[in-house]
């Protein structure tokens, strides 16, 4: 009886371990490219897909969108809004979509997805947003708890990519 308990417990532990190992592998099956955002305030970009490679850039913008263009084990080759590419550990990325205000001058954040809608406020280029939804050239955004609509042309991260869900 003691031996049966040992083997049944061992089998249960092995099944749980396999479940936790298979789930991350299935996340890598996502079609490339796709959008993600930086999970933490400080994220290192490296030359190659390992902590052994040197850091080429340090991002200090939690929520900033990046385009994932390649996957290798626990690492993602990402591209930022300036076209810079490098490797980031997958644990440093959040699957939630973000946006980055781009272009010259202030971007108008409107009450509705229309140029006729009231302007609620204006956002400077470089402001990081949470993207709620994009449709017909407009994206609903959340900037530090304030919600509104910005022209999709003024947001890097608004394009629909093959791997987006």
TrEMBL record:
For this entry, the protein name equals: SH3-like domain-containing protein
- Biological classification of the source: Bacteria, Pseudomonadati, Pseudomonadota, Alphaproteobacteria, Sphingomonadales
Q: Which residues form the signal peptide?
A: 1-27
* Annotated Gene3D superfamilies: SH3 Domains (2.30.30.40)
SMART domains under this entry?
Answer: SH3b (SM00287)
Q: Which domain of life is it from?
A: Bacteria
> What region holds the SH3b domain?
33-96, 97-159
What the entry lists under InterPro entries is as follows: DUF1058, SH3-like_bac-type
Q: Name one Pfam family in it.
A: SH3_4
Keywords assigned by UniProt, alphabetized = Signal
């Amino acid at each position: 009886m003691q031996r049966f308990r040992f083997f049944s417990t061992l089998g249960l532990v092995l099944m749980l371990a396999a479940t936790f190992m298979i789930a991350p592998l299935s996340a890598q099956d996502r079609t490339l490219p796709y959008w993600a955002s930086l999970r933490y305030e400080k994220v290192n970009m490296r030359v190659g897909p390992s902590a052994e490679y040197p850091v080429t850039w340090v991002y200090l913008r939690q929520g900033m969108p990046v385009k994932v263009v390649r996957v290798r084990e626990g690492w993602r080759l990402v591209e930022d809004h300036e076209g810079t590419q490098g490797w980031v550990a997958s644990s440093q990325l959040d699957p939630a979509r973000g946006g980055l205000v781009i272009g010259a001058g202030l971007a108008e954040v409107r009450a509705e997805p229309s140029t006729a809608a009231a302007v609620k406020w204006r956002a400077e280029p470089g402001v990081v947003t949470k993207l709620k939804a994009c449709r017909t050239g407009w994206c609903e955004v959340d900037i530090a708890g304030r919600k509104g609509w910005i022209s999709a042309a003024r947001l890097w991260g608004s394009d629909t990519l093959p791997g987006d869900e």
